[in-house]
Amino acid sequence: MADLFSKFDGLIAQREGLLATGVTDPFSLVMERVLSPTVAVCNGHETILLGTYNYMGMTFDPDVIEAGKQALEDFGSGTTGSRVLNGTYAGHRAVETALKDFYAMDHAMVFSTGYQANLGIISTVAGKGDYIVLDIDSHASIWDGCKLGDAEVVPFKHNDISAMDKRLGRIPEGAGKLVILEGVYSMLGDIAPLKEMVAVAKGHGAMVLVDEAHSMGFIGPNGRGVAEEQGVLDQVDFVIGTFSKSVGTVGGFCVSNHPKFEILRLVCRPYVFTASLPPSVVATAATSIRKLMDGNNKRAHLWENSRTLHGALKGLGFQLGTDHPQSAIISVIMPDLERGAAMWEALLHEGLYVNLARPPATPAGMTLLRCSLCAEHTAEQVQTIIGMFDRAGRAIGII
Ligand SMILES: Cc1ncc(COP(=O)(O)O)c(C=O)c1O
Question: Which CATH number fits domain 23-56+296-396: 3.90.226.10, 3.40.50.300, 3.30.565.10, 3.90.1150.10?
């Protein structure tokens, strides 16, 4: 009998090799208690969190918590059903209304995760005979949505406008075309030139989907994302987002002005054939989204944090994923997995949690220490973080 697990042997050996060096497993950290959006207890020690996607720090907002508690009391712990049958409660409609108000769009559809939102929308709107043109660095959920839908998939080099243009130009006349882009690319923290890319896509008669998972709440005058910041939101056909980052809970969504959008509720399998989000979750999401509409001060403070940390890490001699800060993600490029894991552990001992990221999640085989800032990080915490990087970087020999 062929062992179906033999395909994982390479990865198992690499993992065992790494752990044999005595390093703490970077992929199994337990947060024993979470004290605030920026501090948790890990291995018995208070640790500053710089590796969550809690960009706007909404997880401990008192109004958000209260809304969740109330919904738990009023509607129970779960829906036990699909949105199409017994799984649409008042709270699901309320969070969709909050999303329509937040984006000033006609339609909003909520999924159980952002992963499922990409899976569902992409596979349902682009099927056999259609073409999907997408950035090669797209998130796994985008690739999986392409696979599920059976369209022809044409990738282009990351953020390369002319490569995208050429790919679109080769698609047969009359075929359905969907261009998929992200606002912020989460590994390096860089943004897409959406203004130019959306213009090129529209010039070829393509529909455009933008995943704004890492920009919602933070980027753009109203926190609607990079498409808003670059003035092209009205030309984007579908915006995909998640509740698991700036919104501070779990869930995914798509907003759109397409006049036929509502039919998707009957034909989108990752929406129809799964249970809906619990009432407490949609209540926390709706409250958080409405508060994010008024998030100018938080947005300004988060930009300040991003500029300070980026400038300081660059000044210390670390190699970063972007020349200047483009988002709340600052990626520090490590020379290899071994030194990346050692640096990750040294930072943890300092009392700082960041993300160690490695292929296949990262582009070009890179090992990264990804730092995600939060609007609730104080200026003092950012200075403390800089000191921790300085000491750990010198101890491991990276700077
Ligand atoms: C760009 C992008 N899209 C979608 C998702 C999926 O979001 P969720 O965590 O809600 O499944 C992520 C999650 O990291 C992401 O980075």
Answer: 3.90.1150.10
Taking only the tens place, the pLDDT of each residue in 306-336 is 999 999 999 999 999 999 999 999 999 999 9
3 state SS of 87? coil
One-letter amino acid for residue 127 of the chain: G
Q: Facing residues of 241 across strands? A: 253
Instruction: Assess whether the C-beta atom of 211 lies below 6 angstroms from ligand 1.
Output: yes
CATH number of the 62-292 domain: 3.40.640.10
3-state helix, strand, coil in the chain (%, to 5): 45, 20, 35
CA of residue 168 to ligand 1 center, whole Å: 26
Using the predicted structure, report yes or no on whether residue 18 has a pLDDT greater than 90. no
Residue 138 has pLDDT above 90, yes or no: yes
Task: With cut-offs at 50, 70 and 90, classify the pLDDT of residue 24.
Answer: confident
Burial of 123: CB neighbours in 10 Å, binned 0-12, 13-18, 19+: buried
Centroid of ligand 1 to alpha carbon of 43 (angstroms): 27
CB 341, CB 22: distance < 8 Å: no
Tell me the Ramachandran region of residue 27: left when phi exceeds 0, alpha when psi lies from -120 to 50, beta otherwise: alpha
Phi-psi region of 161 (alpha: psi -120 to 50; beta: other; left: phi over 0): alpha
Are 353 and 49 a contacting pair, CB within 8 Å?
Answer: yes
Q: Ligand 1 in contact with 244 (CB < 6 A)? A: yes
Domain definitions of the chain by residue range: 23-56+296-396, 62-292
Q: What integer pLDDT is reported at residue 144 of this predicted model?
A: 97
pLDDT tens, position by position, 66-112: 999 999 999 999 999 999 999 999 999 999 999 999 999 999 999 99
Amino acid at 383: Q
**pTM for this entry:** 0.96
